[in-house]
Amino acid sequence: MSPLYLAHSKEIAARVMDGEMMIMSARDSTLFSLNELGTIIWQAADGATPLGEIVERKICSEFDVEPEEALKDAEEFVRELAGHGILVVSESPLGESRSKKEEARSKKEEGRRPDGY
Fold first, then answer.
1. CA 107 remoteness from chain centre
2. CATH number of the domain enclosing 19
3. Which is nearest to 68 in space by CA: 50, 55, 81?
4. b/e per residue 68-100 (b: at least 16 CB within 10 A)
5. Does residue 24 form part of some domain?
6. Which of 32, 34, 72, 99 could form a disulfide with 21 if both were Cys (CB 3.0 to 4.6 A apart)?
7. Range of the domain at 44
8. What is the distance between the alpha carbons of residues 19 and 16, in angstroms, rounded to a whole number?
9. Any domain includes 47
10. Burial class (CB in 10 A: 0-12, 13-18, 19+), 6
11. Residue-wise pLDDT tens digits, 14-46
C-alpha cells in the first residue's frame, strides 16, 4: 500500500479548547471535536510526513498499541476527515513542494532571486 500524506484543508478553522482540538468546516459549518489521538494526528498533518511515520513516532511510542492496528485505525480516521473536507489526503507529499513554490514566489515579489542572490 502506498504511504498517505495529510494536510489541513484551507476551508477550516481549528483551535485547541480545554485540551480538545475543535475544527469547523467552512464548507458546511460542521463542528468536529477530536480526541487525544485524533489531535495528535491532526497536529502532525504537515503534508510532508507519511501517516505511517506519524503513527509510529507519535502514537505507538506513546500508547500501547500494535503498529498495524494503529495504522489501520488512523487510515480510517483520516479518510473520514477527508470525506468531510477538513483534511487533504494524498499518496504523494503535499506541503513541501507547495511551500517551496510559495517561498520562491514571495522572494520574487520582494525583488530578489529565489536562490538568495
1. 26
2. 3.90.930.60
3. 55
4. eebbeebbebbeebbeeebbbbeeebbbeeeee
5. yes
6. 34
7. 5-109
8. 6
9. yes
10. buried
11. 999 888 899 999 888 899 999 999 999 999 999
76 in a structural domain:
yes
**Which cell is 5 given?**
500524506
Q: What order of strands is seen across the sheet that includes strand 20-25? A: 12-17, 20-25, 31-34
Contacts by 60-68, CB closer than 8 A, 24 or more apart: 63/37
Report the distance separating Cα 47 and Cα 7, nearest Å. 5
pLDDT (tens digit per residue) in 85-100: 999 999 999 964 444 4
Rounded Cα–Cα distance for residues 62 and 76 (Å): 20
